[in-house]
């Protein structure tokens, strides 16, 4: 039986691999563009407004690309350069690259061109592009080159101005680039092959490229025969004539050269980085180098200066320029060194090397101007760093900065350790050689300004149960992953749903429909003068009684309750004058919190703090209020007949008046309306907003002033600026006017090429038609925010009408400033249509039931967003951005005055959330676009319900745990929130029933919390678990730093604890069979160093045993420091691993079991084995398989451990220490124990090339009862009942059966195609089993044991049922039951969740056949009808990738869930068109996607 499957990304990659800086979005703001595998993110680098604040990174946009980003480069083309903006060139794993620009009109990236070089004549012997595709951009932005397929080089020239070049035709002049071409590197020099790196040089008339290559290869073992095999040539690229003269070359470079760095003026030239040395080369000089360790003289004959006492290894290092002559290198172990290039006159005289501190392992770096740089990492959180010298610190005192010791960044970089230790002493002793250097303490100081959280690499993960703090809640699970590397090791807790901490619960309010909490200041009379008490400011962690909410108003079906909340209990007020004869429509504070407004169906009451009526506004018997929006000093009332009424309060007279409006509020009927108070001057009109021309001029002036200041600060001579051009990059101030702003500190910026393009003017960025470019001040599309904020809020009225139009009016004069006719379609962009053209209703049934304009963020940083909810519960969130409306003509043909129109547009933010609600029982009950209900009958139904109170589902909140956003009511309630720096995130919340009421709540016992009321009448007073939880991520996560590497993690359900395997570096010393040290040169037996003494380069890990203290990466078993040897450093290191028992309540280690020296855990599982201690006959144990890594001369052996977790008496002050690890049995085996699993009460172990089933008898011994021989190396094993799935490192998958009587293992079938299987899992759908295999090529393959299939040869061969390219390396998998929606006819199913090294999660799940066929057709429609970012092909990306030639064609068969979920963000008309083409409806497809979204919603 066939199984239909779908793969979808659950959590996007988070490890940063590439970074560039540019002016991409705005000319006056620096942007940081980072790539995370398949994700491209654009950030604004916002400098602080005050001196005591730190700059931040604000997320502007994020895009998921259908390709793996390998490099990025920044250019300035003729199209983007006229606006002072840069373009980005992005290369991918295949031989292709895309040119991206920013669209002002649509507030998104646009693909200008796609350049690909995948033709067969380029591939030659390559099946795919195994060489990394690296882009290099000329510092003068004249061209870019792309290296691919080994020796191929594609050259893409860029147009610098509008003048024609050569014999171009008129059509080609519109492109910002010239035709590209491909050349072979051997055409430049026949010796060029095995290219290592290349880079463009500065200050050459023609683009000049330096190529580092190795014409003859060698390795460490052949250095006696051949060394110094690298060479470098510097080539001038004459693009016009396509000639490439060699300027100069140099041979006999060290064999271990890794990269080349272009050095700007005043030093100039090239810096070649090798593993053991730095070599500077310039034209006319023989080169000068410096040895960085003792190995340099052994591996090269190149003349080097001697500074080998540093013991620096530059393999894998990253660099960034702090100044034109100062480079900061970060090594693989995190050490930071500043290399200063010293000059005498115009020549280089030497190198000054200084240790600057300790950081984390980095993957990329980028300078952001004088004083800042960005560090990206795959292994830790990426950071924005501010650097300065101690001399500068003394001159300017830093008050708000995060201090980081220049020699110890651990606490800030690795997080606070879970365990607290009293030993905080720091030894200031230094190494003798470094003391002789007179290095002293480093002059550099670093401050962490901002971080980007990284959840990768995920090495292992498991699902555990989280104890709920309320009995009524369903069991809550959490996915805990072991992530990070070295001291960045951490546990990451993934939580798809928000888990509230319930403070109190009561069940007395059944039948309620709304809640409000309100605060009102009391009126105090002093000497005959009336005054009001002031509300004291409160923070998340503190609050006074004056700032607490005073009243809780509960609206019920037959009345209104008023409860006092000042005490511990909710007490009903007996003498309240609130209207209690029926339900309440709205409650709010008014007149600067001196009055309370109650809106009910018949009118409006104004009450004071004593709940006494001060003013009443009746509406009339023939009218009924159905909704209201209260924003001081306005009250907007929506009436049942579709009209509205606006009231305004006077804070001086305390009176409320009805404002006279025209027929604007009467027709067409209003469906939803709200008032928005703009306190940040976001809603600006055309005459108030800054223009692009003013931004460019301000950037130029600021840059010129800053450049002069930078010259004085750096004290370096720089040449005069020759051309008066606009300066729009901060690096210019640091490196001089003739230097490129991006390339010289990050020479890894990359890009790639081929010619399929769109005209740059076609994307709407450049004004077309009769628009004069000189008139850009009123017509230019800009997104600039004004400097400073308005002291007084402006108020705006948002109205959504029944005909689908969105209108915005300025209060109090009610002047229309924005109009969009088709808001009911929920398009991607909402532009202003001042001429009111195309106002005919669209006629789509995807109607909006409610909308709200709110601020989202924190108390310090917030942005306005427009939120809309459809009748099915789907959510659309729009972000405002500034954009000048285009000139239009009215019906008489006269130009419309745009000076008073809003200079903004709205951009939809893509959301990956599908509503799980059934259509509401409201005005649109049971209305679907496929139904036969006509418009007349539908309108009649609406009329019957219009007098009823309109249900509120979008509930804004202003302070819940410090966040501001919107709560969406329903059976699956949603939080829409942001931290002010990222885009809004939508998080579901775990609940025990449909949430019908919500309000924020601030009380002595529940500070900054909230109250919910479910359909059963249970009222919950709760708080958000904000401590350590990151709500700005796609899922709420908690990162628990352990400050040591975490290799494995498993959950023990009986004790509800986690067992982790942690590792710290340990010196590797070769020993013989008698355990005696061989060639003990790394340890000085006579050293009498005190136990606490540490080296200046030491990295000390707190929270681990004394044996884990590291001295230059080494320590002995007793924690005593080991002396350096006299010879070269870099002694080999192994790992000292420890089993740790972790409590999920406090995430602290409660017990440890240290393993032997050189013993590495290769497998750990929670197994259910036969035991007489439990009544069921089986018990959960922890089985650990280890291997001893002692070198290639020692025979491999391992050990099998069986642990039990027992209950003990906890420590007096720590109740979590009530469990301990108890070793029941250990058994040494001949071979590495690579995988284990439980099999029908037995223990299945994979030892070497044998798979052995063992019986755990009497909790004392392991006895082998069955075995089978496998081939090479078992990487993973999974068991389903009595069947076993084995993944082999080279021989794909084996499918084995187990027979109990008599006990034996039988090979049922295997995959005969070669595959490096890294992990194995399974899918189950009813009676069908599929094997899921993750290979080393980042693919997933589905295999099936089908003995009745003719092609399987009676089951001997496993049949391939599908393949799918994930794009990320899968390291671990978990199979879990699939969650199905209520009412679904699906049977029992299991899906697989995969954790990747990029920090992401993905799932592969079975889906019903009808759903699969319907979604397959929809997938084709999306591929053909939706433009993909960077112009990439989703189908090509998901094809099976293999470095070997396949024996058969790819099977495909797995649907791309990421592509299908783009459907939910399409406009309504596009959705209906696509579903009509495949013969179905939008609601049916939405139901299918909702079922997929909830499939893995266990946590």
Description:
It contains 16 helices and 91 strands. With 1499 residues, the chain is mainly beta. The strands form 20 sheets. Strands 1, 84, 85, 86, 87, 88, 89, 90 and 91 form a 9-stranded mixed sheet that branches. Strands 54, 55, 56, 57, 58, 59, 60, 61 and 62 form a 9-stranded antiparallel sheet that branches. A 5-stranded antiparallel sheet has the order 6-7-8-9-50, with no helix packed on it. The longest helix has 23 residues, at 692-714.
Features:
1499 residues; mainly beta; 9-stranded mixed beta sheet; 9-stranded antiparallel beta sheet; 16 helices; 8% helix
Low-confidence stretches: 163-167, 397-414, 416-440, 537-545, 702-790, 921-930, 1081-1126
Q: How many DSSP E strands?
A: 91
Q: What would you call the shape?
A: globular
Distance between the termini: 31 Å
Radius of gyration: 34 Å
Tell me the major beta sheet.
9 strands, mixed
Number of helices, counting only DSSP H or I runs of 4 residues or more: 16
Task: Label the structural class.
Answer: mainly beta
